[in-house]
Design goal:
homotetramer, alpha+beta, five-stranded antiparallel sheet, four-stranded antiparallel sheet
Chain lengths: 376, 376, 376, 376
């Protein structure tokens, strides 16, 4: 069974992941992992830090001569600017006064975390709560993607909206792969143009933007997840993994919230039998019925809130003095929706990989391929 | 640590749950549990079966003289009509031909489940996949509610919409408790009137309706859940438990999807300090920041799809003959949104109880109360 | 994946188990389960209670027409004497004064449990801590045995010693199956005769006896368990399940503790290749190398301490008054080693079933059989 | 809750561990961790490799300025000789022909692992199955020890025997701490002298030795672990963690296997009340009754088999050619019992820390200390 454990602070030595349960015999292309990391850092509307970094993954264990051993895979994404932060972050001893954060930022873990962990410096919270944690998940996602692709299971996604610039069109999986832009991961150039304008004006105003992301899984056969226990339900598991991504505040599958307004006669995907296969004329269920995949494409949508760190500073309080303050500004992104899209793909890849590993069992990739091939 | 394991088929002997980790010393009021079960079966728009049943919970273990022992609590909700179904369902041997279901119902687990479990009778799938499973979760929810109330943590909820009849007003926790109707669990009588009309006309048309449910948690202190690992995030855990409820297709926290359209300056809950406490002027985050409770009310909204079993029958296929057919009709509810609301409360109660048990540790209710009282 | 959850008090309504993850399509013979339960209650040296009871299992869910559905299987072993105990044990309300236990029994959970769970009546502890809990595990074991036998994996065991009457001979799996006596589950009639004499004289003296049990697994192919993570090691997992059985104080695999005295040249099982297979001349490792099964028979030995409830009463203290007392006597067995042997088999069956389910994945028995057949 | 995840190959870049759930506020002394690692590598009878290495731990995350943050702690023990092995082990690409191992070693994971993971080079198995994995566990053990010492819970251990040189004397916890030798971790100098002679003569003969290790826990209050579910039993959990240590083939608690020969009247620890406390005159139970700690010292004994890699080579087969061969010799230790003792302490520390974290809950060390202090 696959597990994913992550660790690491935003300005510490690096971000780390241990992935257990990858079968023996998967050939890993490190460049593909780095490609995912690159995409996580790119996008219109990102601030300075992202540009400096240029993350690379290093494999520390579990792989020999590019091939997985079946043992736990350790991944490191070293922080390039650790040298500059060592003085303030080193486990071995450091100056904890200088980079102290006391003005707790609304929308972040600062205030809650400080109370919970009994500290007076929000840096001790934000360093881990930071979205930089996702670098480890994206690196692991690069492994999961290669694993799933060996079974012809593909995951993609795109940005449906940034702020109020929304693209409501219908797209095939192919469309997403072909039309997705590098800048905002959107598919419609006109909507994207509007989105970029919104970003520009928010940047000027010291404000930020969120958006809606759509995720797709193609090639997952039917019967992953199960109606037999509530814990095994595929939609429940995916909802959890997506909601665990920083800044995500909503998850829906298929037509999601709009299903609540439809009548039953409009909402379900009728079943036909053609050319030796059960087929559907529609996919409003988003590929999941009764808590299991039904063989159609999985479709999930996710709402990302606007980044809670604003250059203009939200009203808050100094945690220690209790006096009014402007929230500390650790980062300066205006919009990180495309980055969030990458992270959501990684989170989804991880969960699909787990579900697949549990149903297939097995120790080697060739066993996985054989068993997967035998499923209907 | 609390765990909840459920079992049981829809027309089998009953529905069962084992709850581990309930601390010693909780006095259980069985009538309160039965009250939850009653509410799960009530509501405008329910069909015949629900009326016959009138579920009662029986405690089989873990409680002595109304007081929990600290040992696993076993709950049974016996099926009142098992005598009539015995002939077709008995574990000990039965007639499996007569109640065979072959016309797989769109929107249900039938088709997927039959392939997955290699059976030719959908009854072998639907008996467990049925929403009747939730009777066990609601019974357990009755225990969790009494446990959490001993810590002054309260959970409630209401129906925001049935079909297109939507109530967009703002309500306090108190409002929900006081104004919730018995029929549709709605708060606004005018909206409810419209909803009932929609239900009536759907009933005539052999159609069904879904809706939107809102859930609230009051009294949960800050710091439940954690930003430190993705698995511990409270919103991720709650999203999973809510999405695991039959027919739920979307989950959002706080302002959820509408946050994606807001600017950062509009989306976050600024922090103030008044009368010796950190306060907020708003609760758009729905009580969760950085994956942990922030001390505000938790607010979740859930989308329920329309019931997929329509009296008029959706188009489908006979699984075995592959010929076109009308979907089998096992139940005849038009709208089960109020029932789903009860189940969502139960699912939420279970997850909150788990999170609380992990942070408090402890073996007895008085330890729980002491430790909870000491949290900030 | 298979899980086993048990519940129930010794004099409550019954003992209960929910087993998740049993594949679809296993035909269950209830009589075989009852046979295991009967064996748990039998044996030379048992006191009165065991004779009255005559446990039977009832299947409450997960099985239809004798065949598993793939849904959670609920088992009940109803307590036949609950009617007599209802007055003192009923969850719905009862008299808790009359059967109060205050003289905490050495070797039992009484003292520790009372402190931990904050109670003044040891009955609130001993009812769950009692070895009667194992009735649920044995019933579940009956399911696991039938499941594993469908893969030609067999589990057996016997009593090597009672007190100082020790049988050190070498036995094949066949020997165990054929020669095991009903009275003490021993293989050598002379040793057994001595053991019975010891039991008789202990009975007269109001004393008790323990013993050593040996367990065998035949037909488990190589590669179950894994050297890749410490949690997956088969010997670690089995050690845990066996040590969890009431009264077990030691577990060893293969030659176990005597390996510590041997030289390396004497201790290991050299490898040969004959008739197209790797073979061994010996099995000192007990079928596990590097934390995984090596295809040889699994051999485990377990030490059971003498029953801690003595008719003559051990010295102790009244928990509430703190005055010296004789330990309460809830049961009157002299020797329960054969019963413990049955429970150890059940515990072993459960763990093997779990390990097998994780490696095979799959949803139906026929998938299990196919995949198991394909392993080397 | 505490979890421990390890990774890393014997001749790879290093050994790694992620520890989740360490509370905030523990000051970590890296030198103490290195002291544990040093002790793991020392001892009379070790071969060349151990001397070269001189392991040091590096903390990669979870600690800032020597103080834990409450976030996952990542530990690395870099392999000092990786530079020499890079050519044969690098994840990024390497020569896999030159260090190929085909003569599968009896007593190791080689044969089983090759079949399981479908490889023709035992190096792909042994690199992870190697006892070097324990370096990660020992490093983590160094953290757990410091955590538990902050609660005044101490763990120690010593070597009772090497081969047939057995020390059967009775020792207090103090004795162990004071008298334990650096060379063989034994307490009796005469026995140790004999043991060293045995090691010397084994070395000459190209043979190896195992032994028996005794472990102690002092200061653990009563009520850790639980009789309420079989999974929670402290002895079961500890048996698992100890059996997961490479080369361990037996585990017993208290008087263990000798309890099986005693009568009940001799085997249990009678209870008295003196000076306001419940006391015992003996500790044959090894500090655990009913699956929970009883406040006495925990006493466990473990059997380590002789190292399966002998300089003189055991008979085996070439996995690929199927021809007879002498087992490959990767290491040259004669006796690693003292090293195993250190690992067992680490494994025990990990499990105790997990059990403690579950009962205490809490996020900070000061919360832990307060709650632990309040237990009886």
């Amino acid at each position: 069974m696959i597990t994913l454990t992550t660790a690491g602070e935003s300005h510490g030595k690096g971000l780390f992941a241990i992935v257990e349960g990858i079968p023996q015999g998967l050939v890993i292309d490190l460049e593909k992992i780095n490609g995912e990391l690159f995409r996580r850092q790119s996008g219109y509307g990102r601030g300075a830090r992202q540009k400096i970094e240029s993350d690379k993954a290093e494999i520390l264990s579990g792989v020999r001569n590019r091939t997985t051993l079946g043992s736990p895979v350790t991944l490191a994404v070293w922080n390039r600017d650790y040298e500059n932060w060592k003085e303030f972050m080193a486990p071995e001893g450091c100056n904890t006064e200088e980079r102290k954060v006391e003005n707790v930022r609304p929308g972040h873990a600062d205030l809650t975390g400080m109370k919970k962990f009994g500290v007076t410096d929000a840096r001790n919270i934000l360093e881990r709560a930071s979205a930089r944690e996702t670098a480890a998940r994206v690196a692991a996602g690069g492994i999961f993607r290669q694993l799933l692709e060996a079974l012809n299971i593909e995951v993609t996604g795109f940005v449906r909206s940034v702020g109020t610039s929304f693209d409501g069109a219908t797209y095939t999986f192919e469309d997403v792969v072909k039309k997705r832009s590098a800048e905002l991961a959107m598919l419609d150039r006109d909507v994207e143009k509007r989105a970029k304008k919104q970003i520009d004006s928010c940047k000027e105003a010291g404000d930020t933007l969120g958006g809606v992301i759509e995720l797709r899984v193609r090639g997952l056969k039917s019967g992953f997840g199960s109606p037999m226990t509530y814990r095994e339900k595929l939609d429940a598991r995916i909802a959890s993994t997506l909601m665990s991504v920083q800044a995500v505040k909503g998850v829906e599958v298929g037509c999601g919230f709009s299903l609540a307004e439809m009548k039953g006669s409009e909402a379900h995907d009728e079943i036909y039998y053609e050319n030796g296969k059960f087929t559907r004329g529609s996919n409003r269920a988003g590929g999941i019925e009764g808590g299991a995949s039904n063989g159609e494409e999985l479709v999930f949508r996710v709402a990302m809130k606007p980044i809670p760190t604003l250059m203009r500073g939200l009203n808050t309080v100094n945690y220690n003095t209790k006096t009014p303050a402007k929230a500390s500004t650790e980062r300066s992104d205006v919009c990180a929706v495309p980055a969030c899209e990458v992270v959501c793909e990684s989170a989804l890849l991880a969960e699909i990989a787990k579900v697949v590993s549990e149903r297939l069992g097995g120790d080697t990739l060739s066993e996985w391929q054989k068993r997967y091939g035998e499923l209907e």
